[in-house]
Amino acid sequence: MSRIAFVFPGQGSQSVGMGRALAAASPAAAAVFREADDALGEPISRLAWEGPADTLDLTMNAQPALLATSIAHLAALRERWAAAGVAAPEPAFDAGHSMGQYSALVAAGALSFADAIRLVRDRGRLMQESGAGREGRMAAIIGLEDGRLPELLVAARLHGTFGIANRNSPGQVVVSGERPAVEASLAIAKELGARRAIELPVSVAAHSPLMADAAAGMRAVLADVPFADPNPPLLANADARPLTTGEECRAELVDHLTTGVDWIAAIERMVAEGVDTFVEIGPGRVLCGLIKRISPDVEAIPTDDPAAPDRMAVALATAAPA
């Protein structure tokens, strides 16, 4: 019998127009976007649907827009299952990639959607402000052998704060830090054998020490927000340990700002626990691509695939209880 996990994308998966067709086709999805607009007191849905792209890509905008779109996808799925008289699946795990942790917390019932949408707006604002005077950047390094990463770290750190932000899949890492160090790392990585080294369209150095002020700010913001125990459990970004209590989830949202995302460890942990079907709930198919590179034998289904309902039906027919 199959076991299912729901996974939620983070910043970088946004694109102008995301969720617009979904909201037009699904009353439940449209209601999610209305709730997001009401919670923020501004039309984040219009920005997601109409852009402009450079405004949507700003961290303080991209994060609430992505959260709203991901939860809209989840609401549309639940609406479709209810209309078909199909019991909604009980995933063994929810897991979010970076900011996707907020979507995972909402899906697992640990955090209300209205609180989450306001929190990610605060998170984006604090990240934008963090490291003032130390301009941050991020870059993807593709095709570099893991054994060469220590050399990359040593060489790039000669130019400023620098570290590994994400282990996304074998041969793909994201680096983060001060702009001179990240810019230098592009050439250094290629000299060390990387196939590609590409600066990412993000305006902050996420998952780096430059986010220390943001982490302190989020600790204060989160102090009075109610959390419930998640069902199913989540996995921590840094080390893939299960998060089973509301207080562990609260701490995770602070800690993961300055520590890295080990997506390889998260997927390997879920596969080891028997998960063989992953459903990427949100815009794009970034996580499905990473999952197939980490574990080629599993099924990875993106919810924005027109064939997703049929593929989900097959998975549900053989799903084991969580």
Secondary-structure blueprint:
Layout: E1 4-8, H1 20-25, H2 27-40, H3 44-50, H4 53-56, H5 59-84, E2 93-96, H6 100-107, H7 113-129, E3 136-142, H8 149-156, E4 162-169, E5 172-178, H9 179-191, E6 196-199, H10 212-222, E7 234-235, E8 242-243, H11 246-255, E9 261-262, H12 263-272, E10 277-280, H13 286-294, E11 299-302, H14 308-317
Parallel strand pairs: 1-2, 1-10, 4-9, 10-11
Antiparallel strand pairs: 3-5, 3-6, 4-5, 7-8
What class do helices, strands and sheet pairing give?
alpha/beta
Cα radius of gyration in angstroms: 19 Å
> Strand-residue fraction?
15-25%
- Mean pLDDT score: 93
- Reading the helices and strands in chain order gives EHHHHHEHHEHEEHEHEEHEHEHEH
Shape: globular
Low-confidence stretches: none
What does the largest sheet look like?
Answer: 5 strands, mixed
**Count of β-strands:** 11
Describe this entry's structure for a reader.
This protein has helices spanning 20-25, 27-40, 44-50, 53-56, 59-84, 100-107, 113-129, 149-156, 179-191, 212-222, 246-255, 263-272, 286-294, 308-317, and strands at 4-8, 93-96, 136-142, 162-169, 172-178, 196-199, 234-235, 242-243, 261-262, 277-280, 299-302. The protein is α/β, with parallel strands linked by helices and 322 residues long. Strands 6-3-5-4-9 form a five-stranded mixed beta sheet. The termini are close together. The mean pLDDT is 93.
